[in-house]
Each structure stands twice: as structure tokens, then as C-alpha cells.
Amino acid sequence: MPIAQLTATALGTLATLSAADRFRVSCLRLDGGGAFVYWMTAGETYRIEHDGVDWAVTGGEWFTPGRTYRLRRAGLPVGALPTAPHGRVTLRPGTVYELRATSPTRWTLYVLD
């Protein structure tokens, strides 16, 4: 049985902030065994997928396998990601998204199909 090939389509540049060598999506944090604000590292790929409860993030070498990390805004679930300069992408359950650094300071949001 052949393995299906996924296509990544860029949806936009995320609105991000940085501290040292870590990045964050503006106004969002990652909850899972603590609250992580600056959680993205260049060179890593992160997936965002709805798990039937909320938007969960996987990827990056510092994540603990088996632990669920959820995107939050002020402790509440999110339904969209902010894009630069002033847009947003609404997240759709059943769709898988990826975050990748496409330059030293720019993060691009992709949809996998």
C-alpha cells in the first residue's frame, strides 16, 4: 500500500515575539505541565491539530512525549492564530497545521493536505 504524500501550503507569517533564542505566537501560550510563553525554537517543526478536545501542539525536542500541550490565550482555548501584520487564520478541526521558522525571525504557518 503506497504512503500518502502530504502537501504543505503556506497560510501566512505568524505574528511572533522573541526572547533570546525562543519565540512565541503573539498573545498565546502553551499549557501542559506548566505555562510556556516562549516555546518555539528555530530549526524545529511544530504541528497543531485538534484532538477532539482542543488544539494540541506536538514537536520540538524539549516536548515530553505523552504530555498534551494546548494553545491558550489567557488560559482559554484558541480558535485562530494571529498573522503579521494584523490578520488571523481561523483553525479548522480535522485540519493539521505546521509552524516552521522560514528565516531567523520569521515563522510561517502551513496547512497540510
Task: Describe the secondary-structure layout.
Elements: E1 8-13, E2 16-19, E3 22-25, E4 29-31, E5 35-36, E6 40-41, E7 45-50, E8 55-59, E9 69-73, E10 76-77, E11 80-83, E12 87-90, E13 96-101, E14 107-112
Antiparallel strand pairs: 1-14, 2-3, 3-6, 4-5, 4-9, 7-8, 7-13, 8-9, 9-10, 11-12, 13-14
Summary tags:
113 residues; nine-stranded antiparallel sheet; three-stranded antiparallel sheet; 52% strand
Can you describe what's shown?
It is a single chain. The protein is mainly β and 113 residues long. 0% of the residues lie in helices and 52% in strands. The protein has strands at residues 8-13, 16-19, 22-25, 29-31, 35-36, 40-41, 45-50, 55-59, 69-73, 76-77, 80-83, 87-90, 96-101, 107-112. Strands 1, 4, 5, 7, 8, 9, 10, 13 and 14 form a nine-stranded antiparallel beta sheet that branches. A three-stranded antiparallel beta sheet has the order 2-3-6, with no helix packed on it. Strand 2 (16-19) and strand 3 form a beta hairpin.
Beta-strand fraction estimate: over 45%
Sheet with most strands: 9 strands, antiparallel
Distance between the termini: 19 Å
Helical coverage, percent range: under 10%
What order do the SSEs take from the amino end to the carboxyl end, as H and E?
Answer: EEEEEEEEEEEEEE
Q: What's the mean pLDDT score?
A: 91
